[in-house]
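On to our target:
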Amino acid sequence: MDQKQQYKLKKLIKELKSIRGRHTELISVYIPQGYDINGVLSQLSSEQGTASNIKSKSTRKNVVDGLEKAIQALRLHKQTPPNGLVVFAGNVSQREGIPDLKVWTIEPPEPITIKIYRCDQTFVIEPLEDFIAVKEVYGLIAIDNKEATIATLKGDRYVIAKHINSGYHGKHRAGGQSARRFERIIRGQAHDFRVKVAEYAEKEFLGIENLKGIIIGGPVATKDSFVDDEYLHHELRKKVMGVKDITYTDESGIRELINASQDLLEGVAMVHQKQLMDRFMKMLVKDGNIVYGKTDVENALNMGAVDVLLLSENNDDELIDKLFDAAQISGTHVEIISVNFEEGAQLWGTFGGIAALLRYKVN
């Protein structure tokens, strides 16, 4: 599945997830590869007969009409496509008494192996989500003596799971026995805080099936003590793949940790996209081989000068389709850039959502 297919499927899933029927009247049909489409048509016709017994007049009409839409869509296919077929149909109107019947037909990018018919208040989209789901997850911990932030990184986005404050009071300036006593108190506070962070990390990370690794960041002494003194659960300790020096330990510390860990996160979508945007920004400062904005990028594409086309995911589908097609003609690589990180948001907000790394400079 290329970037264009993935982008379109992601947008469609988002749209379908936002729809909720007034009653159990939204139709989802999954036909696996190799399954006889005529058998599904017979089943849906039978379901229409069953639906005629629904007591509510409006619900009965919406179910019967939704099934008819699905049947009409299936009849456009003489046989099940190689990877199977998915159909969604139903009344998506938010206004009582004013129907808005819609149907979506999807030939999936990979083979479907399950057969589903369901009539519910929501569409069944989980099998489609599996096609675009990022399997590998990374755990991130930013920690110092005063606070810690625990997050997960998956594909092109990170999620803050927990932010914890220690209540640490800092060093006491008194001398003699009083100073020693307060040093013990402070050490005890630091120990208790690291135990608490480890417990939260265990709660957040231990149940993640596809946890690829854990990266820990913070000031030298704190993070090293957290790792070396084995505060983490023994199963999580096996997953620690790197320890990085960072300055901050709030959410900005998580972003700093991701930036500092690019050597460990090679292939992760967010890191790859950040690297492309970093290249773009460096070339922008040097007045290098880059352009941005719809007109200038289109001109560069027509000249065959674009090496990498950077498109914000916030662009409309029609524009993305148009630029994708133009890029294919000249062998240009296309990246759909998420807005879930700082540089991706900057592409959309500052550069109009369209930029390009060039093969050579153009006027």
